[in-house]
Design brief:
The structure holds 3 protein chains of 3 kinds. Chain A contains 26 helices and 28 strands. Chain A is α+β, with helices and mostly antiparallel strands. In chain A, helix 7 runs parallel beside helix 8, helix 7 runs parallel beside helix 10 and helix 19 runs parallel beside helix 22. Chain A is globular. Chain A starts with 5 loop residues before the first helix and ends with a helix. About 1% of the residues of chain A have low confidence. The longest helix of chain C is centred in the last third of the chain and has 16 residues. The termini of chain C are close together. The model of chain C has no long low-confidence stretch (mean pLDDT 88). The chains are: A alpha+beta, B alpha/beta, C alpha+beta. Chains in contact: A-B, A-C, B-C. Chains A and B meet through helix 8 and helix 10 of A and helix 1 and strand 6 of B.
Chain lengths: 730, 227, 80
Amino acid sequence: MIEVSEQIAIDHGLKSDEYKKICKLLKRTPNITELGIFSAMWNEHCSYKSSRLHLKKLPTKGKKVIQGPGENAGVIDIEDGDAIVFKIESHNHPSFIEPYQGAATGVGGIMRDVFTMGARPIANLNSIHFGSPQHKKTKNLLRGVVHGIGGYGNCMGVPTIAGQTSFDSSYNGNILVNAMTLGLVKKNKIFYSKATGLNKPVIYVGSKTGRDGIHGASMASASFDEKIEEKKPTVQVGDPFTEKLLLEACLELMAGDSIIAIQDMGAAGLTSSSIEMASKGNLGIEIDLNRVPCRETKMTPYEIMLSESQERMLIVLENGKEETAKKIFDKWNLDFAVIGKTTNSKNIELFFNQEQVAKIPVNILVENSPMYDRKWKKSKLPKKNKIKNEVLNKLKIKDVLKKILSNQNICSKEWIWQQYDHTVMGDTIQKPGGDSGVVRVHGTNKAVAASVDSSAVYCWAHPLTGGKQVVAESWRNLISVGATPIAITNCLNFGSPEKEDNMGEFVECVQGIGEASKYLNFPVVSGNVSFYNQTKEVGIKPTPSIGGVGLIKDCKNMISMDLKEVDNLVLIIGKTEGHIDQSLFARTILDEKNGPPPEVNLFNEKNNGESILNLIDKGYVKSAHDISLGGLLVAISQMCIKGNKGIKINKLKNLINEIEYFFAEDQGRYLIEVNKKDLKEVTKILNKNSVHHEELGIITQNDMIINEKTKVTIDELRSYYTNWLSKYMS
Amino acid sequence: MKSSVITFPGSNCDRDIDVALKKFGFNNKMVWHGDIELPKSDLVVLPGGFSYGDYLRCGSMASKSKIMQSVINFAKSGGLVMGICNGFQILVETGLVPGVLLRNKYLEFICKNVFVKLDNKENAYFKNLNKDVLELHIAHNEGNYFCTKDQLKEINDNNQIAIYYCNIEGKIEDQYNPNGSIKNIAGIFNKEKNVLGMMPHPERMIDQSLSGEDGSIFFKNLLNNIK
Amino acid sequence: MKVSAIITLKKDVLDPQGKVIHQALDGMGFENINEVRQGKYFEIDVDENDPSKAKAVVEEMCKKLLANLVIENFKIIETQ
């Protein structure tokens, strides 16, 4: 057996003082298996040691919240005894090393988190970010990730209903793959990971354990360096077929009353799942490692405990239910083994070949895990740029619109979502490409809307504002389909917490997220932090991804963005101030990367959003779309393309420059379509609520008429918007 | 009217087709792949999904499962058997319908609405259908129908082509072929026309708020034909 | 000159296909199977007469494209 030394601990990613702390707490030197367990539990990925302090400040409670952070996923109430279980999680590092398997196992992992709680997954979403399109790796990474997400989700038979894709050179060496899943469960049939009761059998089910991903969780907490090649063998291979069987088997077992607690084996596999269950129940756990079903011969206790083989679950059963459970797993051709029991020792005790190979008090691993108050640097709000009117006046609106609509971060992502089965389960009532994806709650008239958003550029320019903005955008995307926003999940992708700049970005983004979600009553119920998205000295732009979920009480009230009827009017909700700094226009047309992001006024966000929901309730809104990246003209172009209709835009009454008016990214804005006959009533409601609004124009059969000199046909708009990605990938 | 839907390990459209059949008046039963006997049925459906993970060849392992012998016997005695998507792939592997389904020409999974032209209404599936072009939905990675020249001649001679990919007007051209299928073939019958295999999913088009409603037309008509 | 290459999953990498094929064969009554691993086979006609050079070219292809070295091994099995 390997003699443990400080150097070996450091090779496991532990810091010197962390190793000393382990020895002190144990009052001895750990053996290699124990060291492996500590390194897995104490790394950033499992312990949240750099982020815990700050995450505590997020609002996590609310009338609709059944379960906040701390479980496999968050749970919210959607009335009638139904609940939605959801979470977003990153699989960034594995996806960079092996894009297909990395993305696939990311999707598999998040679905397991959801069905572990008893919920049948009903929708998948994802937020994926790649380096510059010109970078030599981007195309293959994109193709691999998309195939991986589709390969897993399609096979599971869960529709992928929405997503977000961006390109930015800051992801050249660190792509981001964030996967989100929503599941449906009855409120009284939710399962948790807290073990209770002594001498209860601990059951292992699913796939066999192999040498996959040993120390994957540690990998997720290390930044990439030149030695990346050496880290390759740790990538896990996903088996969606086995997971589909595992899903059906678990749900079948959950229909009865056999399960006390259940936890999936994700990062750090058997180690974190067993310790989590024991810790939550304030119990001990004893495992005989010889009983763990293994795929390879001669696996050591160290390897068995740290394997990240996929598609496995750990269950604490009621006594006497072993046979019932085994029958179900046999039917689905899955491994089933009683591997241990709960104890009152409050230790995790492992046996192998009749010898004790590890004994660690559970509380040392969990409560005594390190927590750092890392140094961080506060960022200043950058000064506004003064853009001269002469510069703007030289630009032709049509040219600018063409460039922006075909920009990689705006253009249609149909090439991607056509590869995802988005209609299986027969309840998808709003497909990808809208503001949110919407699925019906099976067998009812209500529906759940979900969207995933991030705005790394804003967060990079001013993290506090950026953090607020992402939450506000998520809220707007739900409102735009007629859903009442309920709660969010967040996936916080940042550089190294050991660098003051990156840590500052994290702290302030979290603060922004917290402020916005508190104000909008849009609490955070689950999430995940991914640090060390860093190659050598360079970190990614701070990229919190926010997954929002909302409820549509009657499917008939769902709104989509396609323009519906000629002669209807389009109104702009919210005020256009002409904020150009950090807009897509500034970056792509003016090549200006400095300046502050648009200000986020939470009062206006709330007021505008709630007023629109009110109008939707009354049946006045025929189509709606929020105005975000790219600005007003991009938003109306998308509505025209989808509805195959034109618009005649009114002569500007606003005093700001036309270019600023059309391409500014001021927040809190929407476009809504209303019938002429309802205009008076709509205006009355908006005025009563003090919502700023103006008329953009009238819907026509074809052509977007921007002003007396500029006309664009819908076919032109469509060709700008739809071609870039498929051309790039072919 | 009685129908049976077979659930294989990895089937994932079994619930969807169950919902559709029941919605249009079938008395449907779910049948496990490990069962030996088929309940008394007027129609057997092999659903879409990824039976056995699509490993080895799509449908290959499902075609060898216990229940399939009864399904084959049922088909050979004239019973109606319909395979949708993965179900079509399973039918091909059993040899009940000719040909094979290769990987899509552009090597990518495709999920979208398509139009299909009905070629032959002299059968229980399409008789009396008052439309020649249906809008249906596809979601597959291996739907590229292929057969040998001799087989194609035989298929043609026997009027076995059920549906072709086309445009909204029913034009059958290469540009409307989503996956590279020979002759734009989207679905095919056995010689006797009681077995139908097709890639599109009619069960995903059964109400206004989904991708469309042409699936409803198909199922309503099917029920009337069987009655 | 024709060179063949066989690509297989590395020893410790999970082979979901092999596993399921194994189960199916079991179910069909083929007994005595210890393990099934599946892989890919390539036959490449290289415009080259020197066998060692032809093999070297195919080896390069395996490393750069045909095999995913993260999870797969390759073997150049024959030349003719």
